[in-house]
Design goal:
Distance between the termini: 31 Å
Protein name: Polynucleotide 5'-hydroxyl-kinase GRC3
CATH superfamily of one domain: P-loop containing nucleotide triphosphate hydrolases
Family: Belongs to the Clp1 family. NOL9/GRC3 subfamily.
Number of strands: 27
InterPro entries: Clp1/Grc3 (IPR045116), CLP1_P (IPR032319), P-loop_NTPase (IPR027417)
Largest sheet: 9 strands, antiparallel
Helix content: 10-25%
CATH topology of one domain: Rossmann fold
Structural class: alpha+beta
Pfam families: CLP1_P
Organism: Pleomassaria siparia CBS 279.74
CATH architecture of one domain: 3-Layer(aba) Sandwich
Radius of gyration: 26 Å
Number of helices: 13
CATH class of one domain: Alpha Beta
Length: 666
Amino acid sequence: MPGKRKRANIHGTYSPLPDPGTATIKPISAVAAAKTRLQPVHIDHAPEAVSDLVVEIDASEKEYTEASSDEEAPDIRRNVQMCNWRYQNDNVSVDTDRELTMILTNGEELALIGVFDFVILKGAMNINGANFAASQRGGGPPIIRRAYVPSPHPISIIKGLDDTTQVQFLHCEDEPAPFENISPLFKGIWNERPDGRSCRSFAVIPESDADLLKRALRAEFIPHDWTRQIEDCASNLSTTLICGTPSSGKSNFARRLLNRYLTGHGKLARAIPSIYFLDLDSEKPEYSPHGQISLTLVRETNLGPSFTHPDSIPGSSGANRPIRSHPLKAKNLKDSMDYFIACFEDLFQTYTNLQQRNPSVPLMINTPGWLYTDGFHQLLQILSQTVPRRLVYLGDARSTDEEKARKIHQLTTVVTKNRVLVHELSAVPNLIDPSRTDAELKSMHMLSYFHCTGAVLESGTTKRTYDSRPLSSITPWEFCYEESEDSEQTFIGCLMLSEWVEPQLLFTVLNGSIIQIVETEDENVQDLFGQLPRTNKYRIPYFEKGPNDAVEPLDPRTSRLVCTALLRGWDPETRTAQVLVPKTHEVLLHGLKPEKTVFVFGCCETPEWAYAEDAYLEAAGRGKDIKVGNKMANEAVELPPWIAKVEDIGNMGYMNTARRVRKFQQ
């Protein structure tokens, strides 16, 4: 369409993407350094995002590599049993650099780390709640499936379901997430050797000390009441709502129940081809980027963390299909509960309309932990509107805490009135501090989303492909924000879901931020095309705030989220915004109409991971060690202008206040 096109050449005031800041590392004693090496690898918390980010890299940090001879650090790591399967000559038939074929007995458990394809030659097994059996005779070639088991997540347990289950595990040549050269968050999470030599893409981990990298691994723990209730819930093709306290295992339970639906349970229960998944957790979504709630038709079993399937790919045959989604603000969502409920009601109504055509497809609703703690009234409202067949509550229902007891009583009253079956299950929090924080896992998810280039279907399994180059090497789309002699305006304007930002700051705040491209059918909004107020200097159109000092969000009934994008820079000369979207979603941009398109921002944190990709890549090319936690001690690497060394930032301060540097434009 006029004014919106792929760029052939980069011009204007653009620089590749800037990097997050890091804290200065203080020298420590030799004993403390030795203790640190014995502890599991840990990533520091990312700094709070700000619109004008100060990025600090410590170029003078020192590492003490040896403890003194008269001071020995005690080994504080604890060896943990991961599974009960043990290597024996009679239970392993093939063990090579590319294959491991072995036998599991009924109830025997196996723990693997890494990425692997697997084929069940005989019997049946369970992984992540999914039940897989050997192909029947005459049923065609064996089905090859792929599982992803990285170290930051609990190690999946493979369990034999028959007296004799023979499974062939295969080495994977292609990397599942080939980003360690552009982000240290992906470094050391699969099966690797300490010396960097090539090895099989997976390894058996009978106990945590068997890990060559000595990471703090933890096996997944599934209580018996989970297993029983999953079977109970899956026995009926109806609606199941999952709620509970934060970090109680809601997403894990939802994943296992979903896999149970899609794979069945042998002759006891048949598998179903698909299930609707209504994800109300915008902070930890399973099948979409962050900053949105969505309705997805799930067709694929889930055998990996969310960064291995960061979004449903539009038009991909046989894969998960995105139905509808809406953006949510990243912070202070409790101040926008009416909008949250409106988005939920629209998604649930969409499911209701689809369910009338195919009533045999069940619905699963996953709720965030904050909805139970801070939005309990809205949770009761959702319960009353959906009237699920089953309510799964994760937490301590027998708690003597007065507040918890009150909420349990209210839940019981609502579900009794609507004849909802209640399943009270044990919470399963993480027992060991993970090697990646929630913020870092979110960064991994978003990085994987923007670098995804497509998917291929092999032997019934969808495998995603990625571009491991920095985003600065990808040609952006141009959206014209003001009509000129050479181009037409191609979107209505910018809408803030965040706290109100003064218009003169929009150019800087939006520069390098993640936005949601939304399409609206509201004629009143469409009439604002070309009529919105604009910033004085750069003429960027924006939606004005209302009486409550906030911008009125778009009506979910007449709008839909098209895709998540990164506004990587502005070109004031041509009045264009340079936008990056994953290659998998570029097809969605072709049909956009200017008078229906809105840029919504304030839904996601600052993409600090994108700012340092070029610097990390250069460091990797020079053979420099990139430390986990966004710490780079590479004096030989020329840092881009948006990354500054700690000592340089210290010299910029005035009156004990550090200055801020712009992210892109100089």
